[in-house]
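Let's practice the habit of predicting before peeking. Look at the sequence and jot down your guess about where helices and strands might fall. Then scroll down.
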Amino acid sequence: MAKAIQTRSLHDLSRRFNKLAQKVDPVINQIVEDITYATVAHIARATPIDVGTARSNWIVSYISESAETRPAFFAYPSRWKPPYGAGGSFGEGRNTAGATWSVPTALRGRRTGQAVYITNNLPYIERLNSGWSKQAPAGFVDRAIAAAQAQVETELEETLGGLDT
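Done guessing? Here is the structure:
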């Protein structure tokens, strides 16, 4: 008789854990999306601009790293190539917004536990991150990731900090 009660109790406990997991998974996935969004926003804002292509090419994927490149969401005439223009000086936030707005779509279908990748496959992105442009210091990607991490940690502490009481 005791074995039947123990088995029933374990089965009941298992069902309760499954119900809890169903409630927790969407919360975890939203946190991952928020972290990804903040990271892309920080990196894109820190990326030097000419026509907007580098900012537009922060691409989010899961399962594997993207090999994709894309044109600028809102291209500007280059200050370095004909036809010459001012480069991306006015309204450049639109390319940053384009990169960040793509995050929810890119993560659609992602399951809890699957890795998220943020890539930029332009051939000159490493040169930009090495300080090639006067618009951003060397290592701007790592600095942007650190800033996003600090932002997210602060937000999570504010959101989850009250759970300790």
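How did you do? The two ends are 41 Å apart (CA to CA).
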